[in-house]
Structure formats: C-alpha cells, structure tokens
Design a protein that fits this description.
The chain is mostly helical. It has five helices and no strands. The protein is elongated.
Length: 126
C-alpha cells in the first residue's frame, strides 16, 4: 500500500494532519500579519478582515472543521454500522477544505458569500 493510499484510508489521518499543520501555519501567518499591522510597515493580506477576525474564523472553520471532519468521518461508521468513506471521497473533502483555506487567505471579500460559505464548510455535506 502506498503512503498516500495509506494516508487516505482513514479520514482521521488526513484531517487531523491537516488540522495540526494548518494550526501551525495559520498561527505563523497571523503573527506575521499582526506584527505587520501593529509594529511593522503595515503589510496586509488581500482580504477585508481584521487580523483578529481572520484568526477567529480560521480557528473555527479551518482548524475546528478539519478536526470535526476527521472525528465524525471516523466515528460515524462505527456508530451506524455503515461502511467507511473511501479514499476518493476523503481526498475530495480534503481538497475542498484546502480550497477553503486558500479562499480565506487570498479571496476573502472578493467572492460571493454563498461561495465563501461553501468553501469554509465542506464538512456540512456529510
């Protein structure tokens, strides 16, 4: 079994990994952004949110949704007796989650709210 297929074999592996990596990356990005706005020359990310609002959004919808998706996609089959999600579905959901993170960083304020909500909450489709 290849490493990628092994990673995609259980949803908790993918989403817990993404949640932990995004927590570290978002914190570093937020600290840089906060420093730019408070101390530095005033650089900004291309979105319409204040750094504290972006940080709160990414804590809830970035880290929180990835951890929630990993937990429920793993636990729900055990609770219901249904088959687990396949690697293609897990890869699709992870891709949607990654698209949401890219949209939250780069496109906030320039896309319609309905599309932004779809990017931020891919786990609502479960």
């Amino acid at each position: 079994m290849t490493a990628l297929l092994r990673l995609l074999s259980d949803s908790f592996r993918v989403f817990f990994l993404l949640a932990s990596l995004w927590a570290a990356a978002a914190m570093a990005l937020w600290l840089w952004w906060l420093w730019q706005n408070q101390i530095g020359p005033g650089g900004d990310l291309p979105n319409a949110l204040a750094p504290s609002h972006w940080h709160a959004h990414e804590l809830i919808f970035g880290f929180g949704m990835a951890a929630t998706a990993g937990f429920f996609l793993t636990a729900a089959p055990n609770w219901t007796g249904k088959p687990v999600a396949g690697p293609r579905f897990i890869a699709l959901m992870a891709g949607l989650w990654l698209a949401g993170r890219g949209g939250a960083v780069l496109l906030w304020g320039s896309v319609p709210p309905v599309l932004a909500a779809g990017w931020s909450l891919p786990s609502r489709r479960f």
